[in-house]
Amino acid sequence: MNTKIDCRGLACPAPVLKTKELIEQEQPENLVVVVDNEAAKENVTRFMEHQGFAVSTSVEGSDFQVSGRAEGGAKAAPVKTVEPEELKQKIMVMVGTDRMGYGDDDLGLKLMVSFLKTLKEMGGELWRLVFVNNGVKMTVSESEVLPVLKELEEGGVHVLVCGTCLNHFNLLEKKVVGETTNMLDIVTAMQLADKVINI
Prior knowledge:
Layout: E1 3-6, H1 14-26, E2 30-35, H2 38-50, E3 53-60, E4 63-70, E5 91-95, H3 105-118, E6 126-131, H4 146-154, E7 158-162, H5 163-168, E8 179-181, H6 183-192, E9 195-198
Parallel strand pairs: 1-2, 5-6, 5-9, 6-7, 7-8
Antiparallel strand pairs: 2-4, 3-4
Helix pairs in contact: 1-2
């Protein structure tokens, strides 16, 4: 028997939080979550997969159904604790704009491009790169920093891109780099980071 929850009309990260709460309380074997936007579908799918569900999605009219079947029982723990292998900082950089500073937009864009290109100098301490608000524009097909971001991602940096922000700017389909995420993942990453740098 399927356990079904309706998360239509809920803003990020509410669909993931409701799914998390239900899994922790009821540990269902089969779960169906109904959402009404692509970002929520991706976020709920990823969360359920991390919880040990085999997930499939379907479209019904303008809604999405995310269906999960527990493989060996759903895991109730939403956050994995990872023991550090080395004694180095985990730095999270949150980018909330596609320009750096105020005054001249062209200069601001040049500075941001230069900043992102220089981030690799942090080496292994750069742990998460999170794009929110106008910053998500750096991750889409027209962005001139895509090669830089792809290089960072291939080097082990986890790039997170706010799904609500992509939806707001109608850019979800244009995202080329990074993992579409939600505020729960961002807040969790902030908790796990040794240092958070906001741009």
